[in-house]
């Protein structure tokens, strides 16, 4: 069991890549919904649990709708707004059903009503996939021309012109969501100043998989200007000033520690 957890953690870190030098992979296990379920009890979260195996296995690893939806859809709640750069979709690999993933829109929304009741008009479509996917094209990359700000993400299928009976279905196995940190928000490392009376600490975070992800979290807060990140422990501290509490002097003194400035011009 411990080896399985370690392997999953390693794989998730390998998947933590940058699409354009400033994009980071969002954490897994966030709330998800699907328009309908082919198998009773099937969870929409199966497409956001880190499993890219590609084998349906009786609804144990991939999502599949009932086939009766006019517009089949799958939605994800990121819990707060981000600059969404795009997604990678890991398709089915266990049959010819991979061809069902076509005429698919990637939509982004900030409207809570979109999460309450799916309406494609509430989403800004940033990519439309019309290809004929194969095993060789897995994962399928849906990259927005420019990042779109939003909290809710949806994949939805346009069935118009798809006459094959099997095209009523909508299936895939995993989605990776990438969010962008603009170039003008990241600066080089700076030298901190320390004060016994500093109250600049805003938050302490754990399991940040890189300094860029740490900076990303800072960029979501209006009063956050600096971050302290440790590579060895994956810890991240957010500050509103470069004058940080003296208690952090030992932390910042480690060779793997970096204090970075977030510029938001």
UniProtKB/TrEMBL annotation:
GO molecular function, one term: fucose binding
Residue span, Fucolectin tachylectin-4 pentraxin-1 domain: 31-184
Keywords, comma-separated and alphabetical: Calcium, Disulfide bond, Lectin, Metal-binding, Signal
GO biological process, one term: regulation of complement activation, lectin pathway
Signal peptide: 1-21
Any one Pfam family match given in the protein's UniProt record, by short name: F5_F8_type_C
PANTHER family from the UniProt entry: F5_8 TYPE C DOMAIN-CONTAINING PROTEIN (PTHR45713:SF6), FTP DOMAIN-CONTAINING PROTEIN (PTHR45713)
Protein family membership: Belongs to the fucolectin family.
Function: Acts as a defensive agent. Recognizes blood group fucosylated oligosaccharides including A, B, H and Lewis B-type antigens. Does not recognize Lewis A antigen and has low affinity for monovalent haptens.
UniProt subunit comment: Homotrimer.
Protein name, as recorded: FTP domain-containing protein
Organism: Macrostomum lignano
